[in-house]
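Project outcomes to date are best conveyed with an example. Our students and postdoctoral researchers have been running inverse folding experiments weekly, and each run begins with a structure described purely in tokens. The record below, which covers 211 residues, was selected by the lab manager from last quarter's runs and is presented without edits.
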């Protein structure tokens, strides 16, 4: 059973991260702007299939780790917290803009789907993110860890389908305006960075408080 106190925090954090532009959003927006909304929606589904594969892998790996050693799982949580803080600091101090003019070769819908799945699955940053993000919101004392991890990961992917679909459907207007909105991109950088750092600090200090 999920922690009812942590679940709203998880949803809010996930929503904040999903609504701000990132590499996956860039790919979806560019594909939608180039080949239309249908291709954009296909790219959304393909990316989320890849993300779901990462959720399954993270769930099985972390569950096996807990069964083998509770101490090892605690270490993973601390390392995950540190990684989230690192991501936040890097995002804040990075001068790179996420959205830029990108040229994507036109392809059939079948190739759009297969390409998106491969891109998402082969992205090591996605795997690291789920390994760092999901453990912060589970509690072995509240029941089956595998179920908790899988449920949280599934919620994240379902939310991503909704938010990424909005980007795909509105890419003709929102996509171009975001590319020409430096003030938004700067604010987005600080917002996402702060969320990552907050999650990392929350995880670290909440564990200390339970000892």
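After processing, the design step wrote out the following sequence:
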């Amino acid at each position: 059973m999920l922690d009812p106190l942590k679940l709203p925090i998880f949803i809010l954090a996930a929503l904040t991260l999903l609504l701000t532009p990132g590499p996956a959003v860039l790919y979806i927006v560019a594909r939608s702007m180039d080949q239309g909304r249908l291709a954009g929606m296909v790219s959304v589904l393909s990316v989320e299939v890849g993300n779901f594969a990462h959720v399954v892998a993270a769930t099985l790996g972390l569950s096996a780790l807990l069964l083998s050693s509770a101490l090892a799982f605690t270490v993973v949580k601390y390392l995950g917290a540190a990684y989230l803080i690192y991501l936040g600091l890097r995002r804040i101090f990075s001068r790179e803009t996420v959205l830029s003019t990108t040229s994507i070769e036109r392809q059939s819908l079948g190739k759009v789907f297969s390409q998106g799945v491969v891109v998402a699955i082969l992205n090591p940053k996605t795997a690291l993110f789920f390994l760092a993000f999901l453990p912060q919101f589970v509690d072995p004392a509240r029941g089956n860890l595998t179920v908790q991890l899988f449920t949280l990961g599934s919620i994240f992917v379902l939310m991503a389908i909704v938010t990424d679909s909005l980007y795909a459907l509105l890419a003709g207007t929102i996509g171009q305006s975001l590319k020409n909105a430096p003030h938004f991109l700067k604010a987005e950088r600080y917002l996402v960075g702060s969320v990552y750092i907050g999650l990392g600090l929350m995880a670290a200090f909440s564990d200390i408080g339970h000892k």
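The two ends are 22 Å apart (CA to CA). The chain is about 80% helix and 0% strand. The training component of this project remains on track.
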